[in-house]
Amino acid sequence: MAGELIRMEHIEKSFPGVKALDDVRFELRAGEVHALVGENGAGKSTLMKVLTGVYPKDKGTIYMNGQELTIKGVRDAQEAGIVMIHQELNLMNHLSAAENIFIGREFKKSGNLFLDKAKQNKEAKALFEKLNVDIDPTVRVGELTVAKQQMVEIAKAISFDFKVLIMDEPTAALTDNEIEDLFRVIRMLKAEGRSVIHISHRLEELQDIADRITVMRDGAYVDTKNIEDVTVDQIIKMMVGREIFVTKQKDFEDVNAPVTLEVKNLNAGRMVQDVSFKARAGEILGFAGLVGAGRTETMRAIFGADRYESGEIIIKGKAVKITSPKVAVENGIAYLSEDRKQYGLALGLDIDQNISMADMRSFINVFGIINKKKSMENSEQQRNALQIKTPSLKQKVKNLSGGNQQKVVLAKWLTRNTDILVFDEPTRGIDIGAKNEIYKLMNELADQGKTIIVISSELPEIIRTCHRVIVMCEGRITGEVTKEEIDQDVIMGYATRRLA
Amino acid sequence: MKKKILAAILMAAMVLSAVGCGGGASEEAAAPEAGNAETAETGDTASNDNYIAMVSLGFGHQFWQAVKQGAEEAAAEAGYRITFEGPETETMVDKQVDMLKTALQNNPKAVCMAAIDTESVATILQEAKAEGIPVVGFDAGVGEEESDSKCSTDNLAAGAMAAEHAAELLGEKGKVAVIGHSQTTIDAVQRVDGFIEKIGEYPDIEIVDVQYGEGDQLKSAEIAKSMMTANPDIDLIYTSNEGACVGAYNGLKEGNLIGEVLLIGFDSSAALKQAIRDGEIAGAITQDPIGMGRKTIEIAIKLINGEEVESYYDTGCRWYDATNMDDEDIAPLLYD
Amino acid sequence: MKSILKSREASHKLIIVCAFILIFGFFSVMNPSYASYSNIMTILLATCVNGILALGVSFPVITGGIDISVGTVMTFSCVMSGTAFTVWGWNIWIAILFGFFVGALCGAINGFAITKMYLPPFIATMAMQMITKGLSLVVSGIKPVYFSECSFYQKIATGEFLGIPGFYNAIIILIVVAVICYILFSHTLLGRYTLAIGSNQEATRLSGINVDKWKIIIYALSGLLAGVAGLVMSSRLNSAQPSLGTGYETEAIAAAVIGGNSLSGGEGSIVGTIIGALIISSLTNGLRIMAVPTELQSAIVGLVLALAVFLDQAKKMKAGR
User: Which of A87, A275, B41, C127 could potentially form a cystine with A168 if both were Cys, beta carbons 3.0 to 4.6 Å apart?
Assistant: First the structure.
């Protein structure tokens, strides 16, 4: 193992009212892949932003190759060879891949007046060939998949000849194949002697790619270990600081429970073809499959968020033509989107306003005046029931953690009191403690007789929470797995089975 | 899709119904297009044999409508067809340039022009002249180099005339404020300059404030009131066009200041005439816009026919007040 | 006090109230007659037209849209009401209500074009601006429409309320409209959905709310208030001036923005809008009283606009860290 490349010592950073980093240390060796994990709010991103010069540190020292390194801004970090690929990629969708890579450093023709696009494209192509990825340098970045956009970012980083590459949750939006490809590239970079810091919530994948792991908790450093010396459970314990309570759902046996939602031969574009299923009161029904299997599209069509072309939707025995989310909600369907920031919450509004949004009509009097007291009472009740952690219901939702945001979305729908709740990736971007609370809530709701539908790409989540699982692939239902059969391999078998 | 069609129908219905009631409101406004160009048809549209293009520096104001009326009358008598165009606001230089260019595309026999900005149209007009198209300037903005002849009010003289009457009303002693309507058009500037210059000849009259309200009635009203707040002892306010005058009048009325300060104005309109008749506005200078329109077309036709014309015609201006506004020589110069 | 300071919107309100007091204090010192009762009434009266327009435009602005048609819709609605009164011989009050209806209809068509024909708000309302401008000229025959046959028309705005000297009815109209807007915005579904749409339109739709319907209502409200502004304006001038109207939308949007309504939507305040309108009119009035050259007046108002938004942004940046 090569020697130490970067050492951060006694790093402190405060924001108004919060100590985000408290005496943190971190050490990175040349040519290693170093996983950095911790719950949301543990300080991982802040630490990396200090390293890349986005935030100035309050205290502490950064060394590179044993020499003290002054990082006053992003530029200093770049010159030292430290680059970061953020979770939200920093690409200009309307420019080509090559233009994105060389933005600000464009090649010019002699005379320095005109851009030398040919050379730019050639250089970009060389970078892609080196990474062994198939991307046309002239294609507009917006037309690429997320995985390929990531490769463009990596190519850009290589063009800077970086020493340290920091990747913030690079695998969150990728399919398994794409993740494999990304890991192949990471291993190649490592073989060249470069270091990669890998921030991830997916602890299972770290065994494959990381050499060492550093755990953070509540703005403080916990420990650094060789990856082969720890198990996933041990990592979780370090992250959470306590044993994790793993929920075990009650079995759902009541096949006589009334069918609340029945879908017959639903078709909506390429992604939803001939989908039929039934869900019962008190049941937690899982939808498994690979990313892009059409699960979200199916649910969006049922919810009226997108139009469907044909098919029948029967809610509690009554056929309903769902033309808009309004109709769906009025018929008792709620949809908790996978992207709660974009589709679930009005981030700039406060908690109370968000919770009451779907059911405003119960909070107005005959003159149309909002009874704010009544709405606050309801929000207070939801806050206690769901344990939303916030100093005030007047807090803007954007200031909440992912888990609490998800609870606000859930509170919104519980206020509306719909009988069918569709959870699309309910725990994405949520830390482990909060995940368990969400699972517990889903169980409670099912016990109350509500129908819960869960879409998840995390198989362990599906296996742990669902009574029955429907598996989709390429817009079609390819299998149904009952409680007794639920098993990772069976589901994966269906998920990859293509119907001709 | 149904809804889209519905929306389109709604819009169309609105346009049509409004056009319909337009006919009721005014005989002149029968032109169905909602633009600001109207054509007085006296010949075949396709033929440009007897076509004269007029590009004005304004359109919406009654003054320009009066010029248009005079021009149309003169054109109809001589068997000519004219177009009369002008930008909505008297500051849209570029729009006016486009209008002139478009007008020239239609091969007019002559071009009559009142320019917002002399420089912006000088080259185009000179080219037209070089091609043998007669150019007649009217009202303002066109110099001798670009035109064969010009018909306008001598605004310096008009401003001076207003000053003389102001001095008479004040007994050659007192404080005066000015509300102008533009700092950029020559005629507006000259009306204020002519006034101030002439007032300078009276040692006991002092000009305390000069402000500009873009001819917007509401703005001019606010200006009049704030002037009176700042200098309660102002004896007379001079305003340089109809909008400024009626605006100031309304402002003074709101402040219960009518009678405490004299107001004199410029141009004519129904409201302005009524206030003068009631003695609430002391008097005003009127130009002869109908005569100006008429004269402009007459000169243009003379030029088309190759006749000799003079390089400048003063179309005149008159002072009117409650005592003389119904006189035979004044009444025709006043318009609504 | 502490909780007031905490909220960003509240602190912006504090900034603009201070700005307003500063402007008022400055001019009062420079010229004592500025702070006289009659001049204060003059300032309030001068706030009416722009204030009502600004209140109307605040709603589309808070949804993240814009309405640049308010100035000419104002003109068009009073031209229509004048035509109904003078040409068609309608009862004056019905003619006035007709004017409001025309304004609301124009607004509703804006909303329709935006939601059902997918036009961007700027384009849809720009089209409406041009349409109403043209129609005003056509309907009126490019002449002012006089209300002189109605003896009290001018008194609707400039009459003295309860006989209090200098206290014009228009000021009461502004106050009533402001209070109604405040209630609509802070205490009804309309206001809540306006905010929600501005904050996240898609999330609002997915909460089962008929976003299209509400947007049409919001734009209709903006048009309706333009109609009310048209009443005040035409009453003050005792005539509907068909060629007026352009430029008024800029001033109304400026008032809304100074008042802390974000053009990207999701935040706003009715009180802020009123203070914004007051800032503009008291500033303009003060500059006129000090006889500042007209050309400089506009530049100074522009500077204040930039400063107000800058202070807001600076706070936001600080809060973001």
Answer: A87
Q: How many CB atoms lie within 10 A of CB A183?
A: 17
Query: How far apart (Å, rounded) are the C-alpha atoms in residues A295 and A273?
Result: 11
A97: containing domain: 4-240
- For residue A84, give the CATH number of its domain: 3.40.50.300
Same domain, A273 and A211: no
Are A79 and A202 in a shared domain? yes
Interface mutation target, options C189, C193, C195, C206, chain A, most CBs of A under 10 Å:
C206
Which residues on adjacent β-strands are paired with residue A473? Answer: A476
Report pTM. 0.76
Which CATH architecture group holds B34-153+289-305? 3-Layer(aba) Sandwich (3.40)
Please enumerate in sequence order all residues whose Cβ is within 8 A of that of C97, keeping only pairs 6 or more positions apart, or say none.
none
Q: How far is A1 from chain C (nearest CA, A)?
A: 39
C290 in B contact zone (CB under 8 Å): yes
Those chains having 3 or more beta-carbon pairs within 8 angstroms of chain C are A, B
Of A325, A368, A394, the CB nearest to C205: A325
CB contact under 8 A, C195 and A349: yes
Amino acid at A137: P
- What is the DSSP secondary-structure string of A353-386? HHHHGGGGGGGB-TTSBB-HHHHHHHHHHHHHHH
State the nearest Cα–Cα gap between C155 and chain B, in angstroms.
10
Q: In chain C, positions 180-199, which contact chain A (CB-CB < 8 Å)?
A: 183, 187-190, 192-193, 195-196, 198-199
Chain B residue closest to C31 (CA)?
B230
**Chain C contacts in chain B segment 198-237 (CB below 8 A):** 209, 211-213, 216-218, 221-223, 225-227, 229-230, 232
Are C158 and B254 a contacting pair at CB < 8 A? yes
Instruction: Specify whether A174 is located in the same domain as A322.
Output: no
Name, in order, each residue with C-beta under 8 angstroms of C199's C-beta and a sequence gap of 6 or more: A346, A347, A348, A349, C265, C266, C267
Q: Check if B34-153+289-305 and B155-287+321-333 are the same fold.
A: yes
The answer, for C250 touching chain B at a CB cutoff of 8 Å, is no
- Per-residue pLDDT tens, chain A, 500 aa: give them: 458 899 999 999 887 656 788 899 999 999 999 999 987 668 888 899 999 988 888 999 999 998 998 888 888 888 889 988 887 778 888 888 998 888 877 887 777 778 888 888 999 999 999 888 889 999 988 888 888 888 898 898 888 888 999 998 888 777 778 888 889 999 999 999 999 999 987 788 888 899 999 999 878 899 999 999 998 888 878 887 765 555 555 666 667 789 999 999 999 988 899 999 999 999 999 998 877 789 999 999 999 999 999 999 999 999 999 999 999 999 999 999 888 888 889 988 999 999 999 998 889 888 888 999 999 999 999 999 888 888 889 888 888 877 888 899 999 999 999 999 999 988 877 777 778 888 888 988 998 999 999 998 877 788 888 889 999 988 899 989 887 777 777 887 787 765 43
This model of the complex carries an ipTM of: 0.79
Counting CB pairs under 8 A, whether chains C and B reach 3 or more, is: yes
Positive or negative, the Cα torsion across B54, B57, B59, B63? negative
CATH topology for C43-305? ABC transporter involved in vitamin B12 uptake, BtuC (1.10.3470)
Q: Per-residue DSSP letters for A297-349?
A: HHHHHHHTSS--SEEEEEETTEEE---SHHHHHHTTEEEE-S-IIIII--TTS
